[in-house]
Amino acid sequence: MAIRPPNGARPTENDRMPQPRSAAGRFVGLSAPALAIAYVVLTAGPVLLASFNGGPQGATVFPLLARTAGVAALAMFLMQFVTSGRFETISGRIGLDRTMGFHRLAAVGALGMLGLHIVFFLVRAGESGVAAMTRRLLGYLLRADLFTGVIATLLAVLLILTGKYLRGRLLPYQGWRLGHGAMAVALVLLGLHHAFTNARFMADPLGASALLVIALVALASLLVVYVLRPVHAFRSGFTVASARALSPSIAELVLTTNTPERFSFAAGQFAWLTIGRRHTVTDNPFSIASAPSDLPQLRFLIRNAGDMSGSASNIAPGTRVGVDGPHGSFTLREAGDGPVLLLAGGIGIAPVLSLVRTLAATGDPRPVRLIAGARSAADHVVRTEIEDLMAGHDFRAIFLTDMDDEAGCEKGTCDAGHLARIVDGLDPAAVTAFICGPPAMMETAVGLLVEAGVPPGRIVMERFDFDAGDDAVCRMVRRRFISVMALVYGATFAVALTAAL
Ligand SMILES: Cc1cc2nc3c(=O)[nH]c(=O)nc-3n(C[C@H](O)[C@H](O)[C@H](O)COP(=O)(O)OP(=O)(O)OC[C@H]3O[C@@H](n4cnc5c(N)ncnc54)[C@H](O)[C@@H]3O)c2cc1C
User: Where is this region: Disordered (predicted)?
Assistant: First the structure.
């Protein structure tokens, strides 16, 4: 491996903490309250703006509420393009798992709003029995002018069901990803057609313009992710320096560039890699395992999980690689001045290694503790490297494996006993914990850390499945967000009604 040894590496500005901005002075993202306000303004905005002009023009309460819900649902679906986890402005500070958790939650919220749109149209004062509503529903389904709205609704249901139950199952992941994106584009195009050809709401210039602005934001986000980024990813000029197998299931990929000034990152971040092709929608996210001071080289540890990752050790030196990044908030910028506790499961050791290399390269005085789990001792592919890097540092580690009799490793998965031993002598309230590993391991670890007295706000996570977390901290954030949203949309409906009636 050609990465420069940490002892010879000079600490760079990038390595110093805390960093209000990422390495190249890049803006690291909006805070959670700022994002929540932006989301609410954009999705409730069209209805509220129309309300200033007399409301979404419903003759009576229910059609009015139906129009309000329909416009809010469309705005929410449009915003799904922006919250897809590809924008640092959104996920840079709150983290990818919370962004994806929000993306999922907002999709269900948008579907619920769409449901309200339909139900409110079915209800009529004095005539709202099941039979009357069913008759009305069939009538709507058969109306030619509502065809695009009906198809958009079916697509919305399909999109959410396949997003929840088919992702990574039955279909190859990349096929699912393409289908998910294509269905989302079709859904919003049909929804916009339905809105602009049917809804009387669109007669209101303020509300209609606001909805168009959101549509343009969604379109711009697609262009950025699928046109600009793939082109830009090759501008940093990375090619493969070496690729090799470190164990039967883990490969190491080292990239290098002649123009390192075009790429910078903070330790622990990840990048989307496109190997050897341009303009692709089949890029894969991988954490950078090296430290910023290792540039112009970037190193990745890749577990065999499928087609691309399974052939990583065979990629020929010199192959061009598109690097879209850096992304992610698994960085030391999130840590306080207290001890750093690192919990890694399997290939979750990759971003942890980047943190360790940086702590070593900068001579960081904070105590560092590590619990790393792997299937076997052979899968602890960077154990010696970490122990060498941390020699002389206030450092303790426990290496766990699934097998018995593995030299220097303990058997089992991380439990309360391991945690108690590793934080022994430290103040848990001052610890910042970084967790990266399989979802189940992460969820267990969060519970153990909270029980051990580590504040939830000091637990930093990186999930490798590009999905929402389901641990105690994520659930708490989700509950809070649902309450805020319910309050905001309740108020939006009330304003629309008051303005119109
Ligand atoms: C933020 C982040 C950082 C990651 N860092 C690392 C790392 O350092 N080392 C490592 O080995 N793995 C990492 N992964 C996981 C890695 O991206 C997938 O294992 C890899 O993309 C599999 O690609 P494939 O073509 O070989 O597999 P496929 O056969 O295409 O898929 C196998 C499985 O990999 C996952 N996957 C595939 N493509 C993607 C994608 N575009 N986004 C998210 N998940 C995908 C899915 O769960 C899928 O079921 C990371 C994932 C994320 C989200």
Answer: 1-22
Q: Are residues 379 and 300 in the same domain?
A: no
Domain extent at residue 83: 32-232+480-500
Give the per-residue pLDDT at 29: 82
Ligand 1 mean position, distance from CA 91 (Å): 18
Q: Kindly state whether residues 450 and 357 are assigned to the same domain.
A: yes
Same domain, 163 and 309: no
Residue 10 belongs to a domain: no
Is residue 17 in some structural domain?
no
The DSSP element (H or E) to which 356 belongs, if any, is helix 349-361
53 and 200 together in one domain: yes
- Residue 12 inside a domain? The answer is no
Q: Which of 91, 98, 173 to mutate to test the pocket of ligand 1 (most atoms within 8 A of CB)?
A: 173
Q: What is the pLDDT of residue 25?
A: 52
**Using 50, 70 and 90 to split pLDDT, how confident is the model at 3?**
very low
Compute the distance from residue 244 Cα to the ligand 1 centre, in Å: 18
pLDDT digits (tens, 9 = 90+) for 375-428: 989 899 999 999 999 999 999 999 999 877 667 888 888 899 999 999 999 999
Same domain, 215 and 240: no
CATH of residue 297: 2.40.30.10
CA of 452 to the centre of ligand 1 (A): 31
pLDDT at 202: 64
pLDDT in tens, 430-452: 999 999 999 889 989 999 999 99
Who lines ligand 1 at CB under 6 A? 96, 168, 172-174, 270, 284-287, 300-303, 305-310, 328, 347, 350, 462, 464-466
Determine, yes or no, domain membership for 4: no
CA distances in angstroms from 212 to 112, 119, 192, 474, 483, listed in the order given: 22, 25, 9, 33, 28
Residues 11-24, mean pLDDT to the nearest whole number: 38
Distance 227 CA to ligand 1 centre (A): 21
Q: Which numbered atom of ligand 1 lies nearest the CA of 466?
A: 53
Query: In the 8-state DSSP scheme, what is residue 224?
Result: I
348 and 288 in a single domain? The answer is: no
